[in-house]
Structures are given as C-alpha cells and as structure tokens.
Design brief:
The chain is α/β, with parallel strands linked by helices. Helix content is 24%, strand content 28%. Helix 5 packs antiparallel against helix 8.
Length: 310
C-alpha cells in the first residue's frame, strides 16, 4: 500500500525534493505552494518551479494566502506525512500536526547553525568551510525541531550563492529519495538541537547587500560571492548604484582610503579595502547589462583613478 504525502515548497530546490518524492513512488496527494508572483514591468504572472512540476504531473495544487484556510482540506487528504522544503511561510501547529507520521522539513544548513530564511547566503558570508542539509521534524519555533539526519558538504573557496544552491538542491533530492520510506514510522530516531549553538540567518536586507569598504578584502569577497546571483552586492559610485557580480582578492596592500580606485585595466578595477586591494572584474551600471570590466573599457565609462566607491 502506497503512503500518502502532501508536499509544501516553492522554488527550484523544493521542486527537486518534489521530484524525489515522485521518483520514489510515494503517493503525492497534494502540493502546497506560494501564491503566483508577478515579475517584470508588465507584471507577468510567474508560476513557481514547484507549481510547474505539479502541473506536469497532474497533482492537486493549493495556493492559499493563509494555510488555515485549507486546514479542513488538508485533513481530508488523509496524508501519512507532510514534507516541507523552502515553502516560504510559517506552518501553524494545527497544520503540521495533522499527519500520522508528523511533518518533516528539508533545511539547507547544519542545524542549529543558520536557522531561518537565508542559510545558504550566510554560510558563505560567514566564511564557513562546510554546510549541508538537515532532515528534521517541524516544530512550533522556526527550524527548532528534532533533527533526524544531517548530510554534510564542503564549501569551496570560490563558492557563490548560486553554485552552493545548486549543490544543496542536488543533495536535497538525494536526502528525500534515500530516506523518505524510513519516515513512515512512529519510532524514527531524532535528536534535539543544542540551543547554546543556535545562529540565525535572517532574510537579507537592502543594507546587507551594500559593500562596506572598511571591511577586509576577505569579508568583501565573501559578500560578493554570497550574494551572487541573488540579490547581488552593490556599492555607490558618484551617486550611481553599481552592482558587483565578481571580484578577487589581490596580494596588493591597500594604498589610500577604503573604496578608493587605484587602477583601471583590462584585469579589472582595483579598489582599496582596509587591508588588501580587491579587483572587480564583473559589474553592472544602472540601465546597462552585467559586463566584464574588459568589455566596459571598449566604450565610455564613469570610473576614474582615485574615484571612490562608498
């Protein structure tokens, strides 16, 4: 007899988990995803990756503004287990307690480190050397439930948000595919989290995206990598919001004030931090596309030696 599952999720990484459920032949009796978003100047309706996959597989889809609005419908599905990955909303206790075998969450950090909505960003921003996926039970407090299993991967020195996101998406698929059938059990072993080691990955704010040139080259490089390609780090230059997609740390000692430009060449724009110079090689000027500095030098540009990022 097939086990019934309701899946909660929204973006690409969640779609990978839903695909894993489909590949393991459990009976997905419902999919809950966020309300369709609007993108671009024309405000075109865009379906989430999870909704697209659910439509392709003729699954029952729910997109409530509030989960309590579909509580009775979720009860009527007779699900044995709810599975959550990057749904994007808090799940109330009255909902996560519905299924016989409770509700499990796929969280992209090694809990209790980086509870919250931006664990992948923070792993890079913080200079962590490893991260992973925690398979855990959902509890009333955000990401505080007992951990069933954890799966670890290293973070490379040149890791970006997008490269790490892809790795964790693939790992999340594997976690679900290899462990889902063990979860239909009242006696699953799990351990409580050590509250003394909790850290939080709050949602990235606009101010978090701005580069502080008084920081070290290592910290600035981590910010650029950790925010690429979503939402992308930026700095102001002569009143312009300059998005910075890629840079590298040089062995050149900073000379002058932090944020000051020392050199502009085909290699990039060399800028002071509080210790070494970094070389910006890919950026975006407002109204223009993202380009390399080498490409930028083929036309007119706004940057000058001794000009200053702030």
């Amino acid at each position: 007899m097939s086990n019934n599952v309701v899946f909660f999720g929204t973006p690409k990484i969640a779609a990978n988990c839903l695909q894993a459920l489909l590949d393991t032949k459990v009976n997905v009796v419902g999919v809950v995803t966020k309300v369709d978003g609007k993108v671009g100047r024309k405000q075109t309706i865009q379906f989430s990756e999870v909704k697209q996959l659910a439509l392709q597989n003729n699954l029952k889809i729910f997109q409530p503004n509030k989960l309590v609005d579909i509580e009775s419908e979720l009860c009527s599905l007779n699900a044995d287990l709810f599975v959550v990955c990057a749904y994007g909303k808090i799940i109330p206790e009255s909902i996560f307690n519905i299924p016989k075998y409770h509700t499990v969450n796929v969280h992209t950090s090694l809990l209790p480190k980086w509870r919250g909505g931006a664990p992948i960003h923070y792993a890079i921003l913080n200079g962590d050397q490893k991260t992973g996926v925690s398979l855990m039970y959902v509890a009333k407090e955000l990401d505080a439930g007992n951990v069933i299993k954890q799966f670890e991967i290293p973070i490379n020195e040149d890791e970006t948000y997008i490269s790490l996101y892809d790795k964790l998406s693939n790992l999340s698929y594997k976690v679900i595919k290899e462990n889902i059938h063990d979860l239909f059990n009242q006696n699953v072993k799990s351990i409580s989290q050590d509250n003394s080691k909790v850290t939080y990955a709050r949602v990235i704010s606009r101010e978090d995206e701005r580069i502080n040139w008084n920081k070290s080259a290592k910290e600035i490089d981590a910010k650029v990598r950790g925010l690429y390609d979503e939402p992308i780090a930026y700095s102001m230059y002569n009143g312009l919001n300059i998005k910075i997609a890629h840079c590298s740390i040089t062995n050149l000692i900073a000379k002058g004030t932090p944020g000051q430009i020392n050199e502009i060449s085909k290699k990039g724009i060399f800028v002071n931090t509080n210790d070494y110079q970094i070389c910006i090689d890919t950026l975006q000027i407002p109204g223009k596309k993202m380009i390399t500095v080498n490409e930028m030098l083929n036309g007119n540009h706004v940057f000058t030696i001794d000009g200053k990022f702030i």
